[in-house]
Amino acid sequence: MDKLLCKISLLMISTLPASGSAQQATDEEIAKQLANPIANLVSVPFQLNYDSGFGPADGHRTTLNIQPVIPIPLNGNWNLISRTILPVIDQTDIAGNSGSQFGLGDTLQSFFVAPNRNPSDGWVIGLGGAFLLPTATDDLLGADKWGAGPSAIAIRQFGPWTVGGLANHVWSFAGDDDRPDVNQSFVQPFVSYTTPQAWQFSFTSESTYNWEAEQWSVPLNFVAGKTLQISGQTVSISGGIRYWAETPSSGPDGLGFRLVTTLVFPK
């Protein structure tokens, strides 16, 4: 745990740009854009999750998800949104008395083509694909499979509210033949409320269904955060709890926690 937190600090410090960046939007406006996963806004979230109760040895896992979101203009009306999830994992006894592992997990890379317009004007829908990359540095940190499948997102904003959902399905098509195939669906409904003081309160579920094992994993996340300026850099800081409503017998159990620091680069 200590070495993971040390790496988080070093990574965040090295990513910070020089101070003095001009604020081009209010903190409230930026907070509302952050609630939109396909906003025309560059952001780099560092999402730290802690979960416990894995398997018979009551194992535990700390995961730092590095999640850059980069919009790429295609023309005046459409954007290609790149969303990457690169996990850095520190875990102990997650498969019985399996010892400790530390390193990278598998990367999930998603792309969405979405109209470049404000979701307060109506529903915005993005379509694209998701790609599983076997970047894990240990057998117990990843599936050792290449995978791909469709991905979609829908979002609507009205007043202080943001509602929507993201979904994808990934099938494996190559990799280690001795490892189980990947055939899973991911569904993430979300709702958030943003105050004029740029406080944000959100609820989301990040449910995964494994079609091979016929099992659900359903965490419920409740998070509160604030968008603010630190030495000229726009930052969102949030934290909350997660409750595992449904998991396989080998999965996490009960309560966990989530901390997120997001570096924001308004256009």
What is the number of independent domains? Answer: 1
Number of strands: 15
Rough outline:
globular
Distance between the terminal alpha carbons, to the nearest Å? 36 Å
As for the CATH topology, it is Porin
Q: Which stretches are low in confidence, meaning pLDDT under 50 for 5 or more residues running?
A: 7-23
- CA radius of gyration: 19 Å
The main pleated sheet reads as:
15 strands, antiparallel
Give the name of the CATH architecture: Beta Barrel
Q: How many distinct helices?
A: 2
CATH class: Mainly Beta
Q: Approximately how much helix is present in the residues?
A: under 10%
CATH superfamily: monomeric porin ompg
Order of helices and strands: HHEEEEEEEEEEEEEEE
| Proportion in β-strands | over 45%
What is the structural class? mainly beta
Nearest-integer average pLDDT: 90
Please describe what this structure looks like.
This protein is mainly beta. 8% of the residues lie in helices and 59% in strands. The protein has two helices and 15 strands. It has a 15-stranded antiparallel sheet that branches. A hairpin with a 7-residue loop joins strand 4 and strand 5. The longest helix has 14 residues.
Topology:
Layout: H1 2-15, H2 27-34, E1 42-54, E2 59-66, E3 69-73, E4 78-92, E5 100-104, E6 107-115, E7 124-133, E8 145-158, E9 161-175, E10 183-194, E11 199-205, E12 207-210, E13 215-230, E14 233-246, E15 255-265
Antiparallel strand pairs: 1-2, 1-15, 2-4, 3-4, 4-5, 4-6, 6-7, 7-8, 8-9, 9-10, 10-11, 10-12, 11-13, 12-13, 13-14, 14-15
